[in-house]
Every structure is written in structure tokens, then in C-alpha cells.
Amino acid sequence: MTHAAIIGGGWAGLAAAVTLADAGIPHTVLEAAKSLGGRARRVDVDGRVLDNGLHILIGAYRETLALVRKVAPAAAPYRRLPLTLEIAGRFRLSCPNLPAPLHLLAGLARARGLDWADRFAAARFMIGQRAAGFRARAGETVEALLERTRQPQRNRAFLWEPLCIAALNTPPAEADAQVFLHVMRDGLNGGAGASDLVLPTTDFGAMLPDPAAAYITARSGTIRTGCMVKSIARTGSGFLVRNSEDELACTHVICATDPARAGSLWRELPELAALAASLETLRYLPIVSVYLQYTAAVRLSSPMVGFVDGPAQWAFDRGALCGQHGLIGAVASAAVDLDRMAGDALAADVDNQLRRHIPHLPVPEWHRVITERRATFACVPGMARPPQRTALPRLLLAGDYTASDYPATLEAAVRSGIVCAHAVMADR
Ligand SMILES: Cc1cc2nc3c(=O)[nH]c(=O)nc-3n(C[C@H](O)[C@H](O)[C@H](O)COP(=O)(O)OP(=O)(O)OC[C@H]3O[C@@H](n4cnc5c(N)ncnc54)[C@H](O)[C@@H]3O)c2cc1C
């Protein structure tokens, strides 16, 4: 009888488990950490509920939003806002609720911080990419794409580069233009609501892992947290998954760990040696989240505000979004120069950055810096992302690093988990 072991309870593993639960296929999620969610999880710090990383979703994250709605149908744990990008004191783009690309064109026509030449250049970029099928040149970086399409400095600084860093966590000079154009295609040029900003109104545990765990265990799944998988061995009829508690016999394995740890589990599987070696060549980039607690009255001008004067690129008003009044969360993506900086110094820098834009900001009462050194892989041209199917027919790979049009995002993770679950279902 089919029994799948899912190694890793991040969003990829949970998406696989929920899909198998819907099909009534027995499965066990083995998660090394005490809690589910992986890189997008709740963390409790000094009695405050925070997220391991501040996340932005967009309406084009179709499968992620469907998964969240499926496991928690009662109330959407997020706020959807028609695309609005605000760069403090410099730029504001607010797109009305019209079909693409009219919404963007209308938004550009009334954008603040661009002149008419900038607006035409941005419109020309989107219309040109649409006509060309959103195809980049081989090996092209985002910077080279913006150069080739003659994007003025303000468009780059306020629009394309912030979107590139937020979506790909990779600086434009290195980022893969093709993956960037996929995000533009599905986000800015997608169907109704695809470009909406989707901002969580709960912590990341409540958004998916908690309701997903209830959904899975009420159906055909079992969840074991604090259960570290050490190795996978083949048996006559499937696999033996050796973990910190025991050995689990199963017919299928969905390996849904982060890429840095996947290869170490396959030491006894020579068929996967080349795959393990290729994962070792992945390069990672950090993301730093800085939380600053001010008095409850402190608000940002929008729930999410961008900055071009560093160190953070975006700040979120957790009061407006999650009811955590006075708590500002700031995020610095592709933060190669910040990830080794002392937390107190970085928090002071971000406080100073906010102070330049918010008059009369009081001294913060509390702060916390959370650094993820391996937040995502560096999304550079020519990356070989492994397919979900491996050389072993019943051992599948899920995770944001596996083959996808999308960069390392929740949507790439969720889609990969669903693909793996369907492969198990097809093999029943
Ligand atoms: C700070 C930060 C900000 C981000 N911002 C955004 C954003 O704004 N928008 C967006 O879409 N994405 C964002 N991302 C990326 C997003 O969080 C990831 O793409 C996604 O969470 C990856 O999910 P995953 O399931 O593939 O991997 P993970 O979340 O890494 O899950 C893998 C799981 O496997 C477990 N595991 C590993 N080894 C073992 C083992 N041996 N045995 C058992 N379990 C094991 C781990 O503990 C983990 O829970 C951000 C990431 C970070 C870190």
C-alpha cells in the first residue's frame, strides 16, 4: 500500500501533504524543527509573535493562495491591495482595478515621481515585453535587460530594481532577466488581481502551517516535528527513512528540505550522487528582517513602504496589518553587506532610516534582528534547477529551488510540492 514520507515541513512539504490528504493517500511529514513552516514560519521572541522573515505575496501566487484558502476557508489571513508601490518621499504608483496592462498604464499616467518620458519608457517596456512574449536574451541579467530597453534611471530605481530585488532576492546586475520577466508576465500582465499585493494579516504560522497541520492530520496524514531525517536507503519495495526517532518504511519519498541539506540524505543512493553534487554548487543570498517596536501610535503612511536610501528596502506596518500597533518590520533583501553586522547596529541604522522619513519618531522600545544567511539561492542566469522527478522514480524533490518559472518564493515551493504529490498519486 502506498505510504509517502515527506521530509521537511516547509511550504513545499505542506503543499505536498495537503494534496495527498485530499487524495486519501497515507503519508508522514518528518520535520526536523519543533515547528512547521521552514523559512516562512512564526517565531516567538520575548513574548512577541514575529515571522522568521517578512514576506510579500502577489495575486499571481495562485497555488499558494488556493492552498491557504483550502486549509483555512473561514477567513482570509491576508489583505489584498490593488498594486500600490510607494517609495518614501520619492515615488508612488497606484494601479486601478482594470485588466492588464491597462491598470499599469493608468497607474503610470498618474504616478508621482516620474516625468512623462519615464512613464512612456515604462509603458514601452511592458508593451514591448508583452509583444515579445516576455522572453529575455540567453544569459541576460536584469541590469542588461533594462539597459537594452533603455529604461531611465528613475524607472530603474523606483520600479524595476525594487521589484527585482523583492522577487528574486538577487541584485539586478546578477539577476536572471528571464525569471524576472516570468514574474512580470504573471504579475503585472496576468489576469484579474494578479498584480495585487497580498500582505499577511496574521503570523506565518497561522497563515498556513497551523491550519494545514489540522487539515492533514484530520485526513490521511501524520506529522512528526522535532524529527530529523539522517539518511534514506532503498529497500525491495521502497525506502527506509532513518530519522532521529526510528526508521520509517515507505513506498515513496518526497524530499522537501532546503537545497543545502537535501544532498546529505542521499549518501546511500548512488543514483543521486550527481544531483547532490550539483546542489552543492548553488550560491545563496541573505535576507535580514529588522523589527522595531515603537509606541502604539506610530504608523507608516501605507501598510508597506519602500526605500531607496538603505539599509532596508521595505518596511511593513504590523499595526495596520496584524494589529501589532507600533511594530515596524523592515526587510533588507540580497543583504550581502549586512548579514554579519551586529544586530544592535543594524537596528540603529534602520531606525535612523525610518527617522529620515517619519517626523518625530520616538525612540524604539525594543528591537530584534533576524538574519537568514541562506534565505534563497542566488537567481542568476544559467542556473540548473533540478526537476521534481529524480533518477529514482519514487523519490521526488520539492522545494523552491526545483524547476520553476518562479524565483525562490512561496509559490515555487508550493507548486513543486503539488507536482510531487501528483506524481505519487499517478504511481498508485
Ligand atoms: C527572510 C526571508 C524572506 C523571504 N521573503 C519572501 C517573500 O517576500 N516572498 C516569497 O514568496 N518568498 C520569500 N522568501 C522565500 C520563501 O520563504 C521560501 O521560498 C519558501 O519558504 C521555501 O519553502 P520550502 O518548503 O521550499 O523550503 P524550507 O522553508 O526551507 O523548508 C524546508 C524544511 O525542511 C526541514 N528540514 C531540513 N532538513 C531536514 C531533515 N534532515 N529532516 C527533516 N526536516 C528537515 C527544515 O527544517 C524546513 O522546515 C523569503 C525567505 C526568507 C528566508
Explain what the structure shows.
The chain is an alpha+beta fold and 428 residues long. The protein has 3 domains: 4-73 and 203-282 and 384-426, FAD/NAD(P)-binding domain; 83-192, no CATH class; 284-377, Polyamine Oxidase, Chain A, domain 2 (Alpha-Beta Complex). The chain has 14 helices and 20 strands. The chain has a 5-stranded parallel sheet. It is globular. The model has no long low-confidence stretch (mean pLDDT 96). Flavin-adenine dinucleotide (FAD) is lined by residues 7-13, 30-33, 38-40, 53, 55-57, 228-229, 256-258, 261, 265, 287, 289, 372, 375-376, 399-400, 408-410, 413.
Can you give me a brief rundown of this structure?
By secondary structure, the chain is of the alpha+beta class.
Structural class: alpha+beta
CATH class of the largest domain: Alpha Beta
Provide mean pLDDT, rounded: 96
Number of domains: 3
Mind telling me which CATH architecture of the largest domain this is?
Answer: 3-Layer(bba) Sandwich
**Strand proportion:** 15-25%
Distance between the termini: 8 Å
Largest sheet: 5 strands, parallel
**From the alpha-carbon coordinates, what is the Rg to the nearest angstrom?**
22 Å
Note the overall shape: globular
CATH fold node name of the largest domain: FAD/NAD(P)-binding domain
Give helix % range: 25-40%
Bound molecules: flavin-adenine dinucleotide
**CATH evolutionary superfamily of the largest domain:** FAD/NAD(P)-binding domain
By DSSP (H or I, 4+ residues per run), the number of helices equals 14
Flag low-confidence runs: none
Strand order of the largest sheet: 10-2-1-14-20
Count of extended strands: 20
